[in-house]
Amino acid sequence: MSLVHEIDYGTPASKSEKLVTLTIDGMTVQVPEGTSIMRAAMEVGNQIPKLCATDMLDAFGSCRLCLVEIEGRNGTPASCTTPVADGIVVKTQTERLKKIRKGVMELYISDHPLDCLTCSANGDCELQDMAGVVGLRDVRYGYEGENHTKLGKDESNPYFTYEKSKCIVCNRCVRACEEVQGTFALTISGRGFDSRVSPGMDESFLTSECVSCGACVQSCPTATLNEKAMYNIGTPEHSVVTTCAYCGVGCTFKAEMRGDELVRMVPYKDGKANRGHSCVKGRFAYGYAVHQDRILKPMIRSSIHEPWKEVSYEEAIAYAASEFKRIQEKYGKRSVGGITSSRCTNEETYLVQKLIRGGFGNNNVDTCARVCHSPTGYGLSVTYGTSAGTQDFDSIEESDVVLIIGANPTDGHPVFGSRLKKRLRQGAKLIVVDPRRTDVVRSPHIEAAYHLPLRPGTNVAIVTAMAHVIVTEGLVNEQFVRERCDWEEFQEWAAFVAEERHSPEAVEKYTGVPADAVRGAARLYATGGNGAIYYGLGVTEHSQGSTTVIAIANLAMATGNIGRNGVGVNPLRGQNNVQGSCDMGSFPHELPGYRHISDDATRASFEALWGVGLDDEPGLRIPNMFDAAVEGTYKGMYVQGEDILQSDPDTKHVSAGLAALECLVVQDLFLNETANYAHVFLPGCSFLEKDGTFTNAERRIQRIRKVMAPKNGYADWEVTQMLSNALGFPMTYSHPGEIMDEIAALTPSFAGVNYKLLDEMGSVQWPCNEKAPEGTPIMHIGGFVRGKGKFMLTEYVPTDEKTGPRFPLLLTTGRILSQYNVGAQTRRTENVVWHPEDVLEIHAHDAEVRGIRDGDFVKLDSRAGSTSLRAVISDRVAPGVVYTTFHHPVTQANVVTTDYSDWATNCPEYKVTAVQVSPSNGPTQWQEEYENLSRTSRRIAAE
Amino acid sequence: MSHNSTEKLVYMANQIATAFAAQKHEAAVEATRTHIKKFWDPRMRSKIAEHVAHGGEGLQPIAREALEGLQAPKAA
To answer: pLDDT tens-digit profile of A755-772?
Structure first.
């Protein structure tokens, strides 16, 4: 193996379809109009020397190394900023050019520290390379000049170092921060010899506005900005292309290795979701994979009050299987079940649901999509016919109006957030529907045309009011609706939304959003060109989550914003493989490919291949599992890679359910909170240690590739296979590729997917089958999957979680950039420097009347429970609304959330909890009791 | 919400019925019935059927009508 080298063409590709022919160094070249001469030269393999140019950034023309000569033109223009023209004859290497370039390099080197042998970028330095390329053998100005080393280093960022003396003022980092990331945190300060990159106003990187996406580090041609791992380990010697295991964007990375040690994760330019960009989590926060907290040996115990006992895999698996068999014999076939993981691969989730359906003989299988995007599955399935988003991420480049509802992409899906901001800087308009003023509402060079700060729980009212405006003001795309949708259902819907009670003026009293803003937003979405909707858990995690998804689908159909680039309905999926886990049949009512378990023909095809009869009744969903456990009819559970105790709502009810189980098997990297109630612990392995595929939010199936051996001995799919075999349901796969072949054989939308295709294409978006052998980037082109698009009525029904004198505030929860969900991974990385604890955002007015100051410890009470955490005074939330995250088990924010849930899917209503906030001087009784439980439950007996 | 399982199932059935209530009555009843059949585990359907058999207290008319026409689930 060797390093995967990507060609740097120096400037971005032109999108022009018109071709231009020119001659470069005697070779005829044909490239799209608008291409730079530098890029055209690279297309034929002639690499023009460069320092300030890179194809991730627009041409800048400052370094003066890339000069060329053009016949008939004066001077030596920079090839990066000079576009090609028909018939020109270019020379990239002449005596004159050589002399100029050497002179330029002498100037660069004249004040550069010549400590190459001990430099962290030794062997990975473009300045070093260019010195060689131009044949620099001496510097006429001598070597005794200023080298700036006394300026020292900024090591405040946990992941990279800023070595000021190495800066050559190429501006690549500044431009990357602006053009790629869109944060505008960097600038060049000083003049002449004092010029160098500066985070903010000469602040440290840590205290600046830098979000640690790594784009500056990636773009730096020297050691000025370099990963600390490069200092500590050295340069990598081979790399493997793989997929990030954090959010649903699904960024492609090169895992750059030295032996089996991961040196760094470098975003891959050919990654079709991220296009060479990254965020602080995927780029840097992988240290959890080698964290000392990882459990590498299986453990068992007969009671959660006993310490764990380390055992062999054989013993742990045999114990788990015997317990499940015992329970089923005593309490019935449907008394056990399991949960697949949206963190694990498609192949692994497929195997877990196969084990449950075939090995347990029931359909009690669910996944964490239950608590995030199950309403998306339901809502888009009934209206369009497919439980998935309609677009690819590239589609944003053609959007004219972007409507974001209940999503915070710059924190939750940062790489998509950067791509979105880039499009907004190009002129697309933005509408944000969110109770909070998220970063995307107003940030450098971005300002939403409309921010509708609705009261939590009133999404349906707002979206239906937008539909009211579109229908009553004659903004419906009637041609689209007549051709593509059921016209009768549309008419019924149009009459419904046109009722005065759905007008912006009528709903203002409970949404809190001024009617004229709703009208303006609706008009903009309907008439502003390509309108794209992106939404997140702020839509789904409500008692009317599915209704809002349906209302969104209605809105897109009514305006004709479906079935082409730049438009669509796009759920921003939370976890790396939440789309895949749903695709793979993780829901209790459907087999892989979203086919209901009661369908005889579908069931028969699985029965034939699996060699076992299947139950035709739907199984329990996660919240139903807890209810059944408390009730006593559900007694055993296999949980792969999900921390349900911390992530699911109404923690006390969840813990009561888990405590009632007679056998809980947890398979995870760490002894997570759920494992406090487990009887068998099976060690999990990280995404670096196994092969498989993830499917991202755009239905893109991508390979993850093993770069090191599993530290626990087995990949997760192998452990599931062992358990299945012990249960008497044989599995004999020798590689995940064989599992994918089985998935393809049984799932029409995956029929064309196999590892060979993925290796050849890099990735593919389902459906991928005979009709679409190279996948389907955009859904519903020319017609909906279900036939005619279905308009459905969306009556607003207020949640039963009401504020009142005891609980006068509304709590809404979410996540932030540096931490990820329950924090099991990110809390075990340096990311804790940005978010060491969950805090409660509260408006100054609400804080003042309660005597709460910024930073005070406060008690957060709801009807479900209490916790305590620090308060932060913030004007991001409106008066009457408070906000927190759920990243830290010490806080256990879900002790407070209730078990109200979506009517269609039981997706919990995390986003609306009536609470009271009061000053506090310490943890609540629950927090203290839970801390004690955790301490005793995590004991491991000495051998 | 109550953690009493029967009360919770009644609440859930009413939620579903309310979601479909804007439709014509027959359509709302049918949609509610289909939804429960499609997504509820047999023990949940058996429990609510038992509750309906004992009078179905707390059920809204659409939910009650939907459940009265729902077939009992098969045993495992």
So the answer is: 999 999 999 999 999 999
The CATH number of the structural domain formed by A809-937 is 2.40.40.20
Q: Which fold has domain A374-410+430-445+462-571?
A: Dimethylsulfoxide Reductase; domain 2 (3.40.228)
Can you name the residues that pair with A255 across neighbouring β-strands?
Answer: A240, A265
Out of A333, A543, A617, the one facing B73 most closely (by C-beta) is A617
Q: In this structure, is residue B63 part of a structural domain? A: yes
Distance of alpha carbon A862 from alpha carbon A580, whole angstroms:
35
ipTM for the complex shown: 0.96
Do A332 and B16 lie within an 8 Å CB cutoff? Answer: no
For residue B10, the distance in angstroms to the closest alpha carbon of chain A comes to 12
Query: Residue A517 has which token pair?
Result: 């803003």
**Distance to chain B for A902, nearest Cα, Å:** 8
Domain that holds residue B40: 5-68
Count how many pairs of residues, chain A against chain B, have C-beta atoms within 8 Å.
73
Would the CB atoms of B41 and A653 count as touching at under 8 Å?
no
- Which pLDDT band, with edges at 50, 70 and 90, does A88 fall under? very high
Q: How confident is the model at residue B5 (pLDDT cuts 50, 70, 90)?
A: confident
pLDDT of residue A574: 84
Residue A891 scores a pLDDT above 90: no
d(CA A859, CA A840): 10
**Is the domain covering A299-372+578-693+703-751 a CATH 3.30.1050.10 domain?**
no
At residue A681, the 3 state secondary structure works out as strand
Residue B74 lies inside a defined structural domain of this protein: no
**Closest CB from B5, B15, B42 relative to A617:** B42
Domain boundaries, chain A: 299-372+578-693+703-751, 374-410+430-445+462-571, 809-937
Query: Average pLDDT of chain B?
Result: 92
Q: What is the pLDDT of residue B1?
A: 60
Contact A904 B39 (CB under 8 A): yes
The alpha carbon of residue B16 is apart from the nearest alpha carbon of chain A, in Å, by 5
> pLDDT tens digit string along A350-379?
999 999 999 999 999 999 999 889 999 999
Number of domains in chain B: 1
With an 8 Å Cβ cutoff, are B42 and A800 in contact? Answer: no
- What are the backbone dihedrals phi and psi of residue A909, each rounded to the nearest 5 degrees, phi first? -90, 70
Q: How far apart are CA A31 and CA A17, in angstroms?
A: 9
> CA of B58, closest CA in chain A: separation in Å?
15
Residue B34 lies in a domain: yes
Report pLDDT for A406: 96
Cβ distance A795 to B16 less than 8 Å, yes or no, reads no
Q: How far apart are CA A287 and CA A786, in angstroms?
A: 45
